[in-house]
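[job 0417] fold request received: Sulfite oxidase
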Amino acid sequence: MQGLIGPPDYSQEPSRHPSLRINAKEPFNAEPTRENLISSYITPVEFFFKRNHGPIPLVDDISSYNVSIGGLMEKSVQLSLDDIKKLPKHNVTATLQCAGNRRTAMSNKKEVRGVGWDVAALSNAIWGGAKLCDALKLVGIEYNTKMTLSGGKHVEFISVDQCKEEDGGPYKASIPLHQASNPLSDVLLAYEMNGEVLNRDHGYPLRVVVPGVIGARSVKWLDRINIIEEECQGFFMAKDYKMFPPTVNWDNIIWSTRKPQMDFPVQCAICSLEDVNTVKPGQVTIAGYALSGGGRGIERVDISVDGGKTWIEASTYQKDNVQCIPYDISSDKWAWVFFKAVVGITEDTEIIAKAVDSSANVQPEHVETIWNLRGILNTSWHRVRLQIAS
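[job 0417] inference complete; emitting structure tokens
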């Protein structure tokens, strides 16, 4: 790619907010504190979680930057950033979530491989850019196309970064062509984040945002878009981010027996408390986030203050702190909701939160039932313990 260079080392990394919890330094992976995560419905860029697989690429000459669209179709194009900005601009509010969110709690049950994330490996932003479907029209691919005349069924995104998992090659991922060409999917070629130009950590000058899907498919630092016959065979599609049952281990794993993970399941977590807390008897605020993939909304969030014996329903809200109404057309369908409940505590107890989405999917009760060797998609009931101060 002209215009971009991938640094061979970590000597020119961007600066980051000092409050971030650093889970890995090289490559840099970090999440905000629980308190900072829910301080704002739209996550400030400095608190947005950072997920990387190599050094952060540097822009050499933005005037010569371009993205190619090619592969199994009748024609190909080279698009400059200005070309992309000439397409209709859309703003999409979407929460990106790492598939490894809450991995630490899973690894506490049994060892897994991967970056040790707490509950904050996700964030919410207003993404600005062109819809991918509009860019695909430039090469003759129309709305809800499932296959090109040349046999293309998937859209592959290739980055410019250098990943240790790809032996120094670029990060790759793909989504089905019918999803990429559907305007209702809101897949973006994003060049703005929260009304400002993307910064380096989050994909400058151009990234893909695939709402409702695990963050691994929202490729940053975009270089090429290819129309391909089968799913991308890069490491992160073929040999990572797949959901295996608890019986599979590193001795008997066969990667080809599972499809790459796309939509994320229903999820919630308490962020107003740590996993173990000492509090005074009285009123305690239980607050956090809930979300589900695929554009499914949150129907409700249930809170238990007695270890799951009884339940109450928390209030839920999105922007402007207005209580959510399920299926309300004014809601941000790709974004999280916040929940809140104020409860009275008089003795040591376990607080539990679980969410139900608009398709009546419910979080699993125990992490053991969804344990997997890569530690992805820990969506089990979130539990925190309260101890009364003596």
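[job 0417] notes: The mean pLDDT is 94. The CA atoms of residues 356 and 362 lie 5 Å apart.
[job 0417] exit 0
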